[in-house]
Amino acid sequence: MWCCADIAPRRLLQDRAAASAVEFALVFPLFVILLFGIIVYGTYLATIHGVQQLAAEAARSSIAGLTDGERASLAQNYVTANVSYYPFISPDRLSVSAAPSPGDDTVFVVTVSYDDSASFIFSLPSIIPMPASDIVRSAVIPRGGY
What is the pLDDT of residues 134-146, one digit of tens each? Predict the structure, then answer.
């Protein structure tokens, strides 16, 4: 006499139809976390790069100034005029400070600070560790000619 209880365990062990679904269920969450990580950190690194570029170019533009006040004004004007070219940086969350280095009179320091807390990446679910929302980058340029 045939009994279904004898065949069912052997049949389940040999059936591979659901293996793909199980593999997908195991791999998909890792893929989503990796995708969120790429988006979050890619956007964040693009913002950091933009802030650093603004600081470096503002420092270069400050060379033309004859006094420290004029240099600071040139650096501020450069950042104000060019921040619109950086899509991840909002001008109203940006601040610039430019002054001689406190430890060395022969260099001029331009510091650009950006509050990135309003960025879309900080509104995403935090399934990955989030970076700091304050970005501060500096550029140092030597004073020449004396």
Answer: 999 999 998 765 5
Distance of CA 102 to the CA centre of its chain: 29
Q: How far apart are CA 51 and CA 118, in angstroms?
A: 16
Give the model's pLDDT for residue 145.
Answer: 57
* Rounded Cα distance, 21 and 27, in Å: 10
How many angstroms separate the CA atoms of 94 and 117, rounded? 12
Using alpha carbons only, what angle is made at residue 108 by residues 107 and 111, rounded to the nearest 5 degrees? 135
First to last CA, the chain: 107
Query: Count of residues for the chain?
Result: 146
When pLDDT is averaged across residues 57-64 and rounded to a whole number, the result is 92
Q: Is 17's pLDDT higher than 60? A: yes
DSSP state, residue 17: T
Q: Cα dist. 83→53, 104, 132 in Å?
A: 10, 29, 21
Decide if 79 contacts 61 (C-beta within 8 A): no
Residue reference for tokens 């940086």: 89
For residue 1, is pLDDT > 60? no
